[in-house]
């Protein structure tokens, strides 16, 4: 059997990374940055361990959610593209991803203060200094290693979300290369700019993103849009879901895991976590019902698929504000988010570019709506438009434009670069055969 050179190169890279990690000289955690282990709150540790497990479960849940929606010849390939992110992004996060996201800020100086665009890539490389002592700023009541692992789960699911748009026509090895580039070039700087204490968007612009509406869903949504434009339409774009029970199972796993996603972002077992837990489930319930009723009002049948998509859209929309709004407001978030995403799903112009599983219409648009609604409703003095924060709202809208351009434009260039290195689209023969057999030699 002839082995392609790209697979040999990939194996050599993995080998070098493993050996480098073994030889890497680790430095002890600095007492200037880390608290002692006496400051650990064991209730917070227990909750954050649980929340990390819940967020991890979301990626297999997403694989079932997407796998049930595609054609029978592409179920395994679609599910694997989500599942493989557990391996690829986990290692990438340990080697350099976490350091780029949460290392000391490298950016621009405004009024004598540095506002970060990216983190120092060497500070936490190979989890250097990422130990059991709590960081004074990043999760001050839990071990720093737990904070890093919790954030890892967010990095894993973000490129996995993109896969739904590219299903049934993207080459597997090309996808692996792209998600590495996307994580390093798009995800980590966006994560740093919004979630690092000195991040440009979070600290200077005041952008509020409680659990990843901007960092995760907008970035994935716009990357998906860029991907389908570069890839082009499928030869047969007829959409016949293979296994609706898979979609129902995946939705349940996503909803369950999302409690860790949102409530876990409080980084403590406290009242904010409890409120985020509540707003998450209420927004999803509201969006589910809104979606199925809105479908019926538009002459479509009430479907299990629609109910599942609606529920997930509600989860997406509430994510950036889960800890910032009230229960009635979360109900409205789910309601309006479902209507807007529903209209986008059936928008003819968006259908023409063949986003296979409507990733941009659900995650991208859902993230946009969440960001806008957060800027309007977030509670607290001068926290949003309704609480006197006119400038905060304006900054959110500026950031919305900047993030959209950065994530779409950057992802478009990365897809083009990937295509130059390894062609990203499978052959017409492989596409007709189905990616399960042509790419993986397996059959559903």
From TrEMBL:
Listed Pfam families: Ammonium_transp (PF00909)
Entries under InterPro entries matching the protein: Ammonium/urea_transptr, Ammonium_transpt, Ammonium_transpt_CS, NH4_transpt_AmtB-like_dom
Gene3D superfamilies for this protein: Ammonium transporter AmtB like domains (1.10.3430.10)
Location of this chain's protein in the cell: Cell membrane; Membrane
Limits of the Ammonium transporter AmtB-like domain: 46-443
NCBIfam families in the cross-refs: amt
Name of the protein: Ammonium transporter
Organism annotation: Flavobacterium solisilvae
